Protein backbone atom coordinates (compact mmCIF):
# COMPACT_ATOMS: atom_id res chain seq x y z
CA UNK A 1 0.00 0.00 0.00
CA UNK A 2 1.35 3.46 -0.90
CA UNK A 3 2.09 6.09 1.73
CA UNK A 4 -0.63 8.31 0.27
CA UNK A 5 -3.21 5.51 0.46
CA UNK A 6 -2.21 4.86 4.08
CA UNK A 7 -2.67 8.57 4.81
CA UNK A 8 -6.18 8.42 3.32
CA UNK A 9 -7.13 5.59 5.67
CA UNK A 10 -5.57 7.14 8.78
CA UNK A 11 -7.05 10.61 8.28
CA UNK A 12 -10.61 10.86 6.91
CA UNK A 13 -10.27 14.66 6.65
CA UNK A 14 -7.36 14.35 4.24
CA UNK A 15 -9.27 11.73 2.26
CA UNK A 16 -12.14 14.22 2.01
CA UNK A 17 -9.70 16.95 0.90
CA UNK A 18 -8.32 14.73 -1.86
CA UNK A 19 -11.81 13.76 -3.00
CA UNK A 20 -12.91 17.40 -3.25
CA UNK A 21 -10.00 18.48 -5.44
CA UNK A 22 -9.11 15.44 -7.52
CA UNK A 23 -9.68 16.13 -11.21
CA UNK A 24 -10.95 19.63 -10.54
CA UNK A 25 -9.68 23.13 -11.24
CA UNK A 26 -8.79 24.85 -7.97
CA UNK A 27 -8.56 28.57 -7.25
CA UNK A 28 -6.58 29.43 -4.12
CA UNK A 29 -6.95 32.33 -1.69
CA UNK A 30 -4.09 32.75 0.77
CA UNK A 31 -3.62 34.89 3.86
CA UNK A 32 -0.88 35.64 6.35
CA UNK A 33 -1.02 32.14 7.86
CA UNK A 34 0.61 30.66 4.76
CA UNK A 35 3.73 32.79 5.37
CA UNK A 36 4.28 32.21 9.09
CA UNK A 37 6.74 29.39 8.38
CA UNK A 38 8.82 31.95 6.47
CA UNK A 39 9.22 34.04 9.61
CA UNK A 40 6.47 36.54 8.84
CA UNK A 41 3.86 36.63 11.64
CA UNK A 42 0.15 36.70 10.95
CA UNK A 43 -2.48 39.13 12.22
CA UNK A 44 -5.03 36.91 13.92
CA UNK A 45 -3.51 33.48 14.49
CA UNK A 46 -4.03 31.80 17.86
CA UNK A 47 -0.52 32.79 19.00
CA UNK A 48 -0.44 36.26 17.44
CA UNK A 49 -0.11 39.31 19.71
CA UNK A 50 -2.70 42.11 19.43
CA UNK A 51 -1.89 44.40 16.49
CA UNK A 52 -3.06 47.86 15.49
CA UNK A 53 -2.08 48.19 11.84
CA UNK A 54 -1.89 51.61 10.23
CA UNK A 55 -5.13 52.74 8.61
CA UNK A 56 -5.35 54.69 5.38
CA UNK A 57 -6.97 57.61 7.20
CA UNK A 58 -4.11 57.79 9.71
CA UNK A 59 -1.47 57.62 7.00
CA UNK A 60 -2.84 60.40 4.79
CA UNK A 61 -4.26 62.57 7.57
CA UNK A 62 -1.57 62.64 10.27
CA UNK A 63 2.09 63.46 9.60
CA UNK A 64 3.13 61.97 12.96
CA UNK A 65 1.56 58.62 12.08
CA UNK A 66 3.14 58.82 8.63
CA UNK A 67 6.59 59.59 10.04
CA UNK A 68 6.36 56.69 12.49
CA UNK A 69 5.26 54.33 9.75
CA UNK A 70 8.09 55.21 7.37
CA UNK A 71 10.68 54.89 10.14
CA UNK A 72 9.38 51.46 11.09
CA UNK A 73 8.95 50.37 7.48
CA UNK A 74 12.52 51.49 6.72
CA UNK A 75 13.62 48.66 9.02
CA UNK A 76 10.82 46.16 8.38
CA UNK A 77 10.79 46.03 4.59
CA UNK A 78 14.31 44.55 4.50
CA UNK A 79 13.18 41.72 6.75
CA UNK A 80 10.34 40.97 4.38
CA UNK A 81 12.61 41.26 1.34
CA UNK A 82 14.95 38.69 2.88
CA UNK A 83 12.16 36.18 3.61
CA UNK A 84 12.12 33.03 1.52
CA UNK A 85 9.26 30.74 0.42
CA UNK A 86 8.37 27.89 2.75
CA UNK A 87 7.07 24.40 1.86
CA UNK A 88 3.49 25.71 1.62
CA UNK A 89 4.39 28.26 -1.06
CA UNK A 90 6.41 25.66 -2.95
CA UNK A 91 3.59 23.11 -2.74
CA UNK A 92 1.12 25.57 -4.27
CA UNK A 93 3.58 26.30 -7.08
CA UNK A 94 3.87 22.53 -7.66
CA UNK A 95 0.09 22.23 -7.82
CA UNK A 96 0.00 24.99 -10.40
CA UNK A 97 2.61 23.24 -12.54
CA UNK A 98 0.62 20.00 -12.21
CA UNK A 99 -2.41 21.82 -13.65
CA UNK A 100 -4.64 21.61 -10.58
CA UNK A 101 -4.31 25.19 -9.31
CA UNK A 102 -5.56 27.51 -12.03
CA UNK A 103 -5.13 30.82 -10.21
CA UNK A 104 -4.02 32.19 -6.85
CA UNK A 105 -5.28 35.27 -5.02
CA UNK A 106 -3.14 36.35 -2.09
CA UNK A 107 -3.95 38.85 0.63
CA UNK A 108 -0.24 38.93 1.48
CA UNK A 109 2.15 41.62 0.27
CA UNK A 110 5.33 39.56 0.74
CA UNK A 111 5.67 38.26 -2.87
CA UNK A 112 6.60 34.80 -1.54
CA UNK A 113 4.28 33.00 -3.98
CA UNK A 114 6.08 34.67 -6.88
CA UNK A 115 9.46 33.91 -5.32
CA UNK A 116 8.38 30.25 -5.10
CA UNK A 117 7.82 30.17 -8.85
CA UNK A 118 4.04 30.53 -8.90
CA UNK A 119 3.05 32.19 -12.18
CA UNK A 120 -0.61 33.17 -12.01
CA UNK A 121 -0.67 35.23 -8.82
CA UNK A 122 -2.98 38.15 -8.09
CA UNK A 123 -1.54 40.33 -5.29
CA UNK A 124 -4.87 41.53 -3.96
CA UNK A 125 -3.42 43.97 -1.44
CA UNK A 126 -0.38 45.05 -3.44
CA UNK A 127 3.31 44.51 -2.78
CA UNK A 128 5.88 45.67 -0.24
CA UNK A 129 8.40 46.13 -3.08
CA UNK A 130 6.74 49.17 -4.70
CA UNK A 131 5.86 52.70 -3.57
CA UNK A 132 3.20 54.92 -5.13
CA UNK A 133 2.85 58.70 -5.17
CA UNK A 134 -0.62 59.74 -4.04
CA UNK A 135 -0.31 62.87 -6.17
CA UNK A 136 0.87 61.84 -9.63
CA UNK A 137 0.53 58.03 -9.27
CA UNK A 138 4.22 57.50 -10.10
CA UNK A 139 5.59 54.11 -9.05
CA UNK A 140 9.10 53.52 -7.73
CA UNK A 141 10.84 50.52 -6.24
CA UNK A 142 11.11 50.20 -2.47
CA UNK A 143 14.87 49.82 -2.89
CA UNK A 144 15.09 53.22 -4.61
CA UNK A 145 13.14 54.82 -1.80
CA UNK A 146 15.35 53.07 0.77
CA UNK A 147 18.41 54.75 -0.75
CA UNK A 148 16.76 58.18 -0.49
CA UNK A 149 15.61 57.55 3.09
CA UNK A 150 19.05 56.35 4.11
CA UNK A 151 20.60 59.50 2.65
CA UNK A 152 18.09 61.61 4.61
CA UNK A 153 18.63 59.57 7.80
CA UNK A 154 22.28 58.49 7.80
CA UNK A 155 22.96 55.65 10.19
CA UNK A 156 19.31 55.20 11.24
CA UNK A 157 19.20 51.55 10.22
CA UNK A 158 22.51 50.82 11.92
CA UNK A 159 21.19 52.22 15.21
CA UNK A 160 18.30 49.76 15.21
CA UNK A 161 18.96 46.18 16.29
CA UNK A 162 17.35 44.52 13.28
CA UNK A 163 17.91 40.99 14.56
CA UNK A 164 14.97 40.04 16.73
CA UNK A 165 12.85 43.06 15.79
CA UNK A 166 9.22 42.04 15.40
CA UNK A 167 7.88 42.68 11.90
CA UNK A 168 4.18 42.66 11.04
CA UNK A 169 2.75 41.18 7.80
CA UNK A 170 2.74 44.67 6.22
CA UNK A 171 6.50 45.13 6.87
CA UNK A 172 5.87 47.43 9.85
CA UNK A 173 8.67 46.80 12.38
CA UNK A 174 8.35 47.43 16.11
CA UNK A 175 10.64 50.45 16.45
CA UNK A 176 9.99 53.09 19.12
CA UNK A 177 12.66 55.73 18.44
CA UNK A 178 11.16 57.45 15.39
CA UNK A 179 10.81 61.12 16.41
CA UNK A 180 13.83 62.34 14.41
CA UNK A 181 13.17 60.32 11.28
CA UNK A 182 13.00 62.44 8.13
CA UNK A 183 10.50 61.54 5.41
CA UNK A 184 10.93 62.26 1.71
CA UNK A 185 8.33 63.17 -0.92
CA UNK A 186 7.83 62.32 -4.58
CA UNK A 187 10.73 63.58 -6.68
CA UNK A 188 8.39 64.21 -9.62
CA UNK A 189 5.58 66.23 -8.04
CA UNK A 190 6.33 66.58 -4.34
CA UNK A 191 3.33 64.45 -3.40
CA UNK A 192 2.98 62.00 -0.51
CA UNK A 193 4.60 58.61 -1.02
CA UNK A 194 2.80 55.51 0.21
CA UNK A 195 3.69 51.81 0.01
CA UNK A 196 1.77 50.21 -2.86
CA UNK A 197 -0.22 48.28 -0.28
CA UNK A 198 -3.96 48.42 0.43
CA UNK A 199 -4.29 49.66 4.01
CA UNK A 200 -7.13 48.99 6.41
CA UNK A 201 -9.90 51.42 5.51
CA UNK A 202 -8.80 51.58 1.88
CA UNK A 203 -10.57 49.90 -1.04
CA UNK A 204 -8.93 47.31 -3.26
CA UNK A 205 -8.89 48.65 -6.85
CA UNK A 206 -12.01 47.56 -8.73
CA UNK A 207 -10.16 45.98 -11.64
CA UNK A 208 -8.15 43.84 -9.21
CA UNK A 209 -11.32 42.68 -7.44
CA UNK A 210 -12.93 41.85 -10.79
CA UNK A 211 -9.87 39.82 -11.82
CA UNK A 212 -10.03 37.90 -8.55
CA UNK A 213 -13.70 37.05 -9.04
CA UNK A 214 -12.83 35.81 -12.54
CA UNK A 215 -10.22 33.43 -11.08
CA UNK A 216 -12.87 32.02 -8.75
CA UNK A 217 -15.45 31.78 -11.54
CA UNK A 218 -13.01 29.90 -13.78
CA UNK A 219 -12.37 27.24 -11.12
CA UNK A 220 -14.43 24.38 -9.73
CA UNK A 221 -13.23 24.67 -6.12
CA UNK A 222 -11.97 27.47 -3.87
CA UNK A 223 -9.17 26.53 -1.46
CA UNK A 224 -8.49 29.04 1.34
CA UNK A 225 -5.11 28.69 3.04
CA UNK A 226 -3.98 30.66 6.08
CA UNK A 227 -6.72 33.28 6.27
CA UNK A 228 -9.27 33.87 9.01
CA UNK A 229 -11.38 35.75 6.43
CA UNK A 230 -12.10 38.35 9.09
CA UNK A 231 -12.26 41.23 6.61
CA UNK A 232 -14.57 41.41 3.63
CA UNK A 233 -11.61 41.74 1.26
CA UNK A 234 -11.16 37.96 1.38
CA UNK A 235 -14.50 36.77 2.75
CA UNK A 236 -16.39 37.92 -0.36
CA UNK A 237 -14.65 35.32 -2.50
CA UNK A 238 -15.64 32.47 -0.19
CA UNK A 239 -19.22 33.73 -0.20
CA UNK A 240 -19.15 34.06 -3.98
CA UNK A 241 -17.90 30.50 -4.44
CA UNK A 242 -20.47 29.08 -2.04
CA UNK A 243 -23.26 31.06 -3.72
CA UNK A 244 -22.34 29.39 -7.01
CA UNK A 245 -22.25 25.91 -5.45
CA UNK A 246 -18.47 25.59 -5.62
CA UNK A 247 -16.90 23.66 -2.72
CA UNK A 248 -14.96 25.87 -0.31
CA UNK A 249 -12.04 24.23 1.50
CA UNK A 250 -10.38 26.05 4.40
CA UNK A 251 -6.93 25.24 5.78
CA UNK A 252 -6.26 27.53 8.75
CA UNK A 253 -5.20 27.62 12.37
CA UNK A 254 -8.35 28.54 14.26
CA UNK A 255 -11.84 29.51 13.19
CA UNK A 256 -12.74 31.65 10.19
CA UNK A 257 -15.76 33.74 9.23
CA UNK A 258 -16.55 31.32 6.42
CA UNK A 259 -16.53 28.05 8.37
CA UNK A 260 -20.31 27.78 7.93
CA UNK A 261 -19.87 27.98 4.14
CA UNK A 262 -17.10 25.43 3.88
CA UNK A 263 -17.38 21.90 2.56
CA UNK A 264 -14.29 21.08 4.62
CA UNK A 265 -12.27 22.91 7.29
CA UNK A 266 -8.90 21.70 8.54
CA UNK A 267 -7.28 23.29 11.60
CA UNK A 268 -3.76 22.58 10.45
CA UNK A 269 -0.39 23.87 9.34
CA UNK A 270 -0.64 25.19 5.79
CA UNK A 271 2.86 23.97 4.96
CA UNK A 272 2.07 20.42 6.08
CA UNK A 273 -1.37 20.16 4.49
CA UNK A 274 -0.38 21.72 1.16
CA UNK A 275 2.76 19.59 0.86
CA UNK A 276 0.68 16.48 1.57
CA UNK A 277 -1.81 17.56 -1.08
CA UNK A 278 0.90 18.16 -3.70
CA UNK A 279 2.46 14.77 -2.91
CA UNK A 280 -0.96 13.15 -3.30
CA UNK A 281 -1.59 14.75 -6.70
CA UNK A 282 1.80 13.64 -7.99
CA UNK A 283 1.19 10.10 -6.73
CA UNK A 284 -2.39 9.94 -8.01
CA UNK A 285 -1.51 11.24 -11.48
CA UNK A 286 1.86 9.53 -11.83
CA UNK A 287 3.33 12.90 -12.73
CA UNK A 288 6.07 15.00 -11.19
CA UNK A 289 5.77 18.75 -11.27
CA UNK A 290 8.47 20.20 -13.55
CA UNK A 291 11.03 22.32 -11.76
CA UNK A 292 10.20 26.02 -11.82
CA UNK A 293 12.65 28.23 -13.68
Structure in words:
The strands form two sheets. Strands 3-2-1-7-8-9 form a six-stranded parallel β-sheet, with helices on both faces. The chain has a three-stranded antiparallel β-sheet with strand order 5-4-6. The two termini are 34 Å apart. It folds into two domains: 1-40 and 86-125 and 204-293, Rossmann fold (3-Layer(aba) Sandwich); 48-82 and 127-197, SIR2/SIRT2 'Small Domain' (2-Layer Sandwich), CATH 3.30.1600. The protein is an alpha/beta fold and 293 residues long. The protein has eleven helices and nine strands.
The string of secondary-structure elements, in order, is HHEHHHEHEEEHHEHEHEEH
The top level CATH class name of the largest domain: Alpha Beta
Helix content: 25-40%
CATH architecture of the largest domain: 3-Layer(aba) Sandwich
**Mean pLDDT figure:** 89
Number of helices: 11
Work out the radius of gyration.
20 Å
Low-confidence stretches: 1-6
- Main sheet, how many strands, which sense, barrel? 6 strands, parallel
Report strand order across the widest sheet.
Answer: 3-2-1-7-8-9
Total count of domains: 2
**Number of DSSP E strands:** 9
What would a concise description of this structure say?
The chain is of the alpha/beta class. The chain is 39% helix and 14% strand.
Task: Tell me the layout of helices and strands.
Blueprint: H1 3-10, H2 12-21, E1 26-30, H3 56-61, H4 63-82, H5 87-97, E2 101-106, H6 112-115, E3 121-123, E4 126-133, E5 139-141, H7 142-152, H8 156-159, E6 193-197, H9 206-217, E7 221-225, H10 232-243, E8 248-251, E9 264-266, H11 270-285
Parallel strand pairs: 1-2, 1-7, 2-3, 7-8, 8-9
Antiparallel strand pairs: 4-5, 4-6
Helix pairs in contact: 1-2, 5-11
Amino acid sequence: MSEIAETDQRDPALARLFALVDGRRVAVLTGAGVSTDSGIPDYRGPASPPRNPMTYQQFVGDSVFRQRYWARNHVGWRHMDAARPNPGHRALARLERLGMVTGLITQNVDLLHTKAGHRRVLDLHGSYARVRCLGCEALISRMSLAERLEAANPGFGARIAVTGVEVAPDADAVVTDTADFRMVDCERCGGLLKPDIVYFGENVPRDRVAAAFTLVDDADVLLVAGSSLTVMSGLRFARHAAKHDKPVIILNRGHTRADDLASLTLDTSCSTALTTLADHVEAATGRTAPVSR
